[in-house]
């Protein structure tokens, strides 16, 4: 999180990482250790470096003050603004540097007391725009979180056994979308009054009786689990079109949120697609993923066109192109269009000051890689999957056996060690080979020819599938509904067709 300067659903109250990091110990690109906190570097090397960069920042004061977006969620570029105060904390320059400047070895954080109580109001809206327009008025009530659950999640989540009960508990009728509004503090009665104010606010803006109160902690927990699973619920779409992340954390001022989301939706329809929206409405940082088929060149072309047009919109609405996840490969190309040439040269000077040989995470933030370079993608040009013979089971609902395997998006829920069932073989072995994700990745690489000929029916593949006990825990617990037990049946059919059935299994 320090690397990305990211934050969470409650950033309204607790800010981003840069607001919570006190010190960073780390290593330069050549292995020399350093420690950064406050404005007093411990070594002559760091003193010279930070002195030069502070001078650089102050020479760019005008650009920083006029071009850096005035939204809480600005994490793109380097934090040159943090060097402007008389007494800066130099560690803050490293926050959000995405591993491009140094390698951290210890991070000292400021802690905040947890509030004693939390209450939630689930606000129902008849349209997405209504939710976006009302967000700014809800934020004025001083909640700690306002999180969007959009129509796609409501529709897809209703088919996921894990979430059916929770969605039934918190929804009344057929809302288009929800805003989950949380108030937190030490006085429960005051929080109950906050919920009444929320209800009043919703009524004032045209939505009377549209708030479901969720006061009991035991009821709130599964609601947050639905919210946290939004990404994976969306990724549970079957077929080659998937919600793709590359503009997923742009942030705009709240007064522009409805117009921005409308305009981005128009961009999607212009390119023949739709987007799925969720998360941090409170700070204008909605996660959005247009549905694209990244196996085809046309999907990649659309991705670039949508990125360029969205970057224009973000600039028009004075927002931040990256509000949580950092620049990475997807957004670094847009640093210069959004920050301008002069600040981009200053960012390059920051990079060169720390890492003159460009050894640390090159191609991110400055001197970027191409975001549409297919050689960097999961589905490189020519990607195809094939089984060695006709499938034993009907995979048509999944878009073929390959589609079933590709449902795994590497989210890693199967590595959980507590709760649910998935995945017993991992809990026993703690080995990536024996977890749902490891099996899905091995299957995908094998059927797409990336592990050499006959990999799908190899002894190594068998070893990867052997400890799957076919409990179907993943089918229930995996947010994207990966069904490894079913895939194992398919695998065994082909494996035994090639190697014969041992007497012990006959
Ligand atoms: S079916 Fe296999 S992969 Fe899925 S949870 Fe059970 S043991 Fe793990």
From TrEMBL:
SUPFAM superfamilies: alpha-helical ferredoxin, FAD-binding/transporter-associated domain-like, FAD-linked oxidases, C-terminal domain. The keyword Plastid does not apply. It comes from the Bacteria. Gene3D superfamilies: 3.30.465.10, 3.30.70.2740. Its cofactor is FAD. Keywords: FAD, Flavoprotein, Iron, Iron-sulfur, Metal-binding, Oxidoreductase. Residues 459-488 form the 4Fe-4S ferredoxin-type domain. InterPro entries: 4Fe4S_Fe-S-bd (IPR017896), 4Fe4S_Fe_S_CS (IPR017900), FAD-bd_oxidored_4_C (IPR004113), FAD-bd_PCMH-like_sf (IPR036318), FAD-bd_PCMH_sub2 (IPR016169), FAD-linked_Oxase-like_C (IPR016164). It holds the Pfam family Fer4_8. PANTHER family: D-2-HYDROXYGLUTARATE DEHYDROGENASE, D-LACTATE DEHYDROGENASE. This is FAD-linked oxidase C-terminal domain-containing protein. The lineage of its organism: Bacteria, Pseudomonadati, Pseudomonadota, Alphaproteobacteria, Rhodobacterales.
């Amino acid at each position: 999180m320090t690397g990305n300067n990211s934050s969470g659903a409650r950033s309204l109250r607790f800010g981003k990482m840069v607001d919570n990091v006190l010190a960073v110990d780390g290593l330069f690109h050549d292995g020399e250790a350093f420690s950064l906190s406050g404005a007093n570097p411990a070594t002559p090397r760091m003193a010279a470096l930070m002195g030069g960069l502070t001078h650089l920042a102050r020479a760019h004061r005008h650009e920083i003050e006029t071009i850096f977006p005035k939204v809480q969620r600005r994490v793109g570029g380097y934090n040159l603004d943090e060097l402007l105060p008389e007494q800066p904390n130099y560690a803050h320059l490293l926050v959000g540097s995405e591993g491009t400047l140094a390698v951290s070895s210890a991070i000292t954080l400021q802690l905040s007391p947890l509030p004693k109580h939390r209450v939630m109001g689930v606000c129902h809206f008849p349209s997405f725009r209504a939710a976006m327009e009302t967000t700014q008025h809800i934020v004025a009530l001083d909640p700690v979180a306002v999180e969007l659950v959009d129509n796609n999640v409501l529709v897809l989540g209703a088919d996921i056994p894990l979430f059916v009960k929770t969605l039934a508990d918190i929804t009344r009728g057929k809302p288009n979308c929800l805003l989950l509004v949380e108030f937190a503090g030490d006085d429960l009665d005051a929080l109950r009054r906050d919920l009444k104010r929320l209800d009043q606010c919703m009524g004032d803006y045209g939505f009377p009786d549209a708030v479901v109160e969720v006061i009991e902690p035991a009821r709130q927990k599964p609601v947050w689990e639905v919210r946290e699973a939004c990404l994976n619920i969306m990724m549970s779409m079957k077929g080659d079109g998937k919600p793709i992340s590359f503009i997923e954390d742009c942030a705009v001022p709240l007064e522009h949120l409805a117009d921005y989301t409308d305009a981005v939706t128009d961009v999607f329809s212009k390119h023949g697609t739709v987007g799925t929206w969720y998360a941090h409405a409170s700070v204008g940082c909605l996660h959005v993923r247009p549905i694209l088929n990244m196996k085809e060149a046309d999907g990649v072309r659309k991705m670039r066109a949508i990125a360029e047009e969205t970057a224009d919109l973000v600039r028009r609405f004075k927002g931040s192109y990256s509000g949580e996840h950092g620049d990475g490969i997807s957004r670094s190309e847009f640093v210069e269009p959004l920050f301008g040439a002069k600040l981009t040269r200053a960012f390059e000077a920051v990079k060169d000051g720390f890492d003159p040989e460009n050894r640390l995470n090159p191609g991110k933030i400055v001197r970027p890689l191409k975001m549409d370079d297919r050689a960097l993608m999961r589905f490189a040009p020519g990607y195809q999957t094939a089984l060695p013979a006709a499938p034993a089971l009907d995979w048509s609902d999944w878009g073929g056996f390959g589609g079933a395997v590709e449902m795994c998006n590497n989210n890693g829920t199967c590595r959980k060690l507590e709760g649910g069932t998935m995945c017993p073989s991992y809990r026993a072995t703690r080995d990536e080979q024996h977890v749902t994700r490891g099996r899905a990745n091995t299957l995908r690489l094998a059927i797409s020819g990336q592990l050499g000929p006959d990999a799908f029916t190899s002894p190594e593949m068998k070893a990867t599938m052997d400890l799957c006990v076919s409990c179907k825990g993943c089918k229930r617990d995996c947010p994207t509904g990966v069904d490894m037990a079913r895939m194992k049946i398919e695998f065994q059919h082909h494996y035994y067709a090639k190697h014969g059935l041992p007497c012990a299994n006959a």
